[in-house]
Structure formats: structure tokens, C-alpha cells
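Structural prep section.
Before we set up the soaks we want a predicted structure of the protein with pyridoxal-5'-phosphate in place, mainly to decide which crystallisation condition to try first. Input record follows.
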Amino acid sequence: MKLFDVYPLMPINIVKAENCKLWDENGNEYLDFYGGHAVISVGHTHPHYVETIKNQLDQIGFYSNSVINKLQEELAEKLGKLSGYEDYSLFLCNSGAEANENALKIASFSSGKKKFITFRNAFHGRTSAVVAATDDPSIVAPVNETDNFIFCEWNNVDQFEKLFFANLQDLAGVIIEGIQGIAGIQIPSQELMEKIARLCTENSVFFISDEIQSGYARSGKFFAHQYFGVKPDIITTAKGMANGFPIGGVLVSSKIPAKHKMLGTTFGGNHLACAAAIAVLEIISNENLVEESLQKGKYLVQKLNEIPRVKEIRGKGLLIGIDFEIPAAQVSKKLREEFKIFVGSASNPLTMRLLPSLTISYPEMDYFISSLNSVLNSI
Ligand SMILES: Cc1ncc(COP(=O)(O)O)c(C=O)c1O
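Run finished without errors. Recording the C-alpha cells verbatim:
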């Protein structure tokens, strides 16, 4: 059987990793400034992470959600403490799309309504409702088409307010990324975030923050929306949550009651996934990775600002978008082939995304900067 060919692959077979380094089958070493798409939060094969998963596997890897699982409770407690959301409750699932899908269901069940405001160029995943919340026709199949999503221009506060009141009767929620990721690291304005928070609270509409890419310490705060002093009703997480072990989470405000049967999953919150996610939170806490991400991000941005052919830099913490005047793919290819560095792309072909592990070192950042400088001077 062949693989269903949906990805344009780089001709590289990665077989081993340690912290921010990767090795291919020929022994070539790469520096990982991509983190497998913002997934590697605490470094590849972190000893505490590996040991925790191995120990858990010796005990039990999986049992169903029909029995008590103390690891889920431990994960919820630790996540509550570290994120500042101790009064919220946690629903566990397996991926980012699934987390958002469940967030929309919670808002819809609880309000009895079915419309959502979403933003242009957002990305919320590829499953049924969430793919319809993404205005990219190349990923929305006819079966996913619905008029339940209303698209607002990014950072257009007046348009948001008009759409909000024009649809209020049917409006279950507003979904927005803490910082737009695939769109090229686009930061919402303070005014927009405050407006969403205020209008949602005043009108009993649910505010959903998609923190799948921008959360879990990556932005230099635990969640990116915390930069704006707002408190969403529902927050979704995945990617960095278990450093590559599949898991997703929905944090739900105490004002939203749970009901049996409204949500469910076979694999979500299994013992092994919880052990991996607990290890990640312990490492984030022990190694002070929220603050580390903030400081390292500042350092990178300062160094990037010194490079003349960089047109624009956006970002917070280790979630950084760089615009060039030439296609970013040209720069990335040279970085990969000549300097053995992986970086991320974005929907804008001129934008490069940096999403390294929060454990990246200062010498590694310096190597990236000098390599980028050389590449740009050679094009
Ligand atoms: C902001 C955001 N939301 C949702 C998703 C979907 O997550 P997953 O691929 O785990 O389904 C992604 C993935 O890139 C994302 O960046």
C-alpha cells in the first residue's frame, strides 16, 4: 500500500532528535527552528519527558473514559495552576481540530445557537465545523460548507461590532486565535480583544480563544490572550501540550455547566497522553520556560532587526514571523540545504515562521542569525 499523497515532502528522513537538534538517516545534523510546527515545546527527547512516558507505559498505557483516571485530574490541576485558570475545567481530546470542534459544540449546546464569528486568514483545523471556520476554499470540502460562520476582517473592530449585532439573535460565539499562526504571526489589536471580551460578556455570547499554536508558554505568557487582559470563556490547546504526543484540551469557564453525553472520546485523556502532558507542564515550570520564551524572543527580534534585508518582524516570545521582499521559501531552502536549519512557512509566501522549542539556546539563536544573514547576502 502507498501513502495517500497529501503532503509536499522535503526529501529528508529524520530518525533521531535531541533538544533542538535533528539527525537524518545519513547522520546529517539539523537545527530545529520549526519545532515540527510549534509542537516541540520542551525540546526533543527531554530526559524527564522520556522517563515519565516509559514509566507510565510499564504501568498502563490506556483505559477507557468510563473509569476514574487520576492522571487526568493531576493534569487539570497542574494546567490550572500554571496557566492561571484554576477555576476552569478541562475536557481532553486528541488534536487541535478536535479541541476546537468541541469548543464550538460546548458554546452551541450551552447557548442553543449555531452561528460563530471567525476571522479572515484564521486557521482552526481541518475537521467538519472548524474547517468551515477557516476561509481557505482549498481545504473546505462541499460537505463542510455551512453559513454558520461569519467572517470578519482581521483587526477591523467596526466591522466586528456590526457583524456581532447583525447576527446576535443566532450568535453562539466568537472564535479567535490568541495570535494568528499560519496567517504569518498576526497579533490582534488590544482594541479588538477588549471589544470581543466586552460584547461577549454583555450579550451572553461565548468568547473562544484558540491557543493551539500560540499557547503553552510559546508567546512568553502561558496563553497569548493574556497579553490583552481578557478572559475567554473557552480556551483550546494542543500542539505543545505533550511535546508531540497527540493530545488536545478544552478549558471551560465555570459559568458553563457540563452535561453527560454532550462530549466524549475513546482515546482522549488516555494514561499515556496524560503522563506526557504532565511531564511537559513539569518541565515548563521547573525550567521557567514561560519567562525563557519571552526573553529569547526579545533577543531574536533584536538580532533580526539588525539584518538589513528583513522587511518586517512580528511576534511575541518564540512565535515569530519574518517578512522578506523575496519568497521566504527561497530563503528557507538555502537555510536548510546550506546551513542545516529547519524553519516554518506561512500562508503569505513572503513570510517565514520561527517556532523553535522553548529550550533553544543562545548559541543556537546566534547560529540561526548569522546563517540567515549569509543566506540573505547571497541571494
Ligand atoms: C491555531 C490552530 N488551530 C488549530 C489547529 C489544528 O490543530 P491539529 O492539526 O492538531 O488538528 C492548528 C494547527 O496548525 C492551529 O495552528
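Observations: The chain has a mean pLDDT of 98.
Flagged for discussion at group meeting.
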